[in-house]
Amino acid sequence: MEYNEFEIISKFFKNHQKKDKNQIKGIGDDSALIKIPKNNLLAISTDTLVEGKHFLKNITPKDLAYKSVAVNLSDLAAMGAKPTWITLSITMPKSDSVWLKSFSKSFFKILNKYKLNLIGGDTNSGPLSITLSIYGLIEGKNALLRGNAKNGDLIYITGNLGESAAGLSLLQKKTFLKNVKICNYLIKKHLKPIPRISEGIALRNIANAAIDISDGLISDLGHILKNSKCGADINLNTIPISKILTDNFKIDEYLNWALNSGEDYELCFTISKKNIKKLNVAIKKKIIKCTCIGYITSAEKGLNLIQNQKKIIFKKSGFNHFI
Amino acid sequence: MEYNEFEIISKFFKNHQKKDKNQIKGIGDDSALIKIPKNNLLAISTDTLVEGKHFLKNITPKDLAYKSVAVNLSDLAAMGAKPTWITLSITMPKSDSVWLKSFSKSFFKILNKYKLNLIGGDTNSGPLSITLSIYGLIEGKNALLRGNAKNGDLIYITGNLGESAAGLSLLQKKTFLKNVKICNYLIKKHLKPIPRISEGIALRNIANAAIDISDGLISDLGHILKNSKCGADINLNTIPISKILTDNFKIDEYLNWALNSGEDYELCFTISKKNIKKLNVAIKKKIIKCTCIGYITSAEKGLNLIQNQKKIIFKKSGFNHFI
Q: B212 contacts in A (CB within 8 Å)?
């Protein structure tokens, strides 16, 4: 069955959630109306996912809904913001009720998991693409910014890098693995990245700068360095790479995935040495799992990759949507 | 020349405007960070414009930039909100510098006119489409909502209806007119609608309910009636239609444009009789130009169109993106 845009909203996207007390108007008026609690900043991030660029043509509506929200949540995580509201603009070739049912079920599942309320949006017909704007609150003034890294800071990464790219490579049949269990694990890492929300909130009072790894470590760390006017020395031997990758792939392959492929949605952050104790407490309490991969230097030193105590030459290339 | 996404942002969309004092972070971090002034509500609206649906394939980048912002501003106008910030997600087949230069010039022109600051966004490659999220402030608590119309309220329309649809019909070569000057005037009405921002702000303390005419009077007034649980009697003889339309087109044609075609972006609002004096003051001060077209009744009476004192039968059909 096909629906028009008003039917799509009322059938699949309206009244699925309780209003929160700061949401004066949600879906169904010319705009949403919200109230920002005192002493809070509002973090706003927006991301478009286009078929064939950010997701494969054969992605299921369930996986698409999860990933589009997770990717946007990751931007809030990198600011240390608490997720609150979201708007969804969806453009799709036809209003297929089976597709919409599956999409909206998965969409509200992740929204409810992260206590996000849908407050508005738009539905259109056209080639499949999704734009989400996501809103988070930051109590006080300590947001995690890209531009606050300081010379001498230590650089850390949450989790592991490269598994998402391995999963994508398997999905695209560029890589093959006999072990179905491992295949499925890596594909899941690509399709269901976990936004590091609680880590980001915990890091607000520990880290100086942060970014999420969406375009690849080299490219994303590059943003921190550019905005902070710093350089960095990275020890390649310490890059967190899972045993699954080191056991099943060649070093060139997984290092390239870890450095140049994106979509891990781990956080890369810098902390001053005086905050190491605080970080260790958070690690001990299992709020955060992270690895030190190097340190911030001065801008004129640039970004250096060191492997087995030797500087190595690398090709700096993150994910670029226009190549 | 072609650019990658970071070059597009830094060359065409960054540092074109002064930061306002409530904008802690704009473009260039994982999210924007804003501070909402005390006693203000934040209005948020989002709209996607897709090639071939909301704009014709041969639209110029200049017209596209203007219209996408104007359409979003119109949603804020219908809430009585003061425009403040905007985010832009643009998907385009290639990063053509001539196109981008023209688009961004026109984009910042309308932004500056309405004191809107660009605080973030996203660029992608794919079939041309634009998603804007727009943010406005409402001092106090009096937003113009769709659901506040009361039985006995008078119904008004700002400006005239139908000219945008006439312009579209000319652009699509469904209609022909010999007079080039009139043709260009009507096409301009379609391409450059004026969002009724100052009218919306003035109406916050006068009107009960409001909506902007994006999908057609019948459809949009229908939203007020549905949300307010009311009916309405509309006198077709009073629908504001310009002399240009009545002189150059048949009555069936222009009435259909006025009732069923959208994109006039005028405001339809209801006021209680006790506020007529206040409205007349605003009309006298030239803050608002509007026409009374009928009144609100009870829900069981439904929506009735009256022409020459007779009820007429009409086909209720606004613009539906999925038909």
A: 30
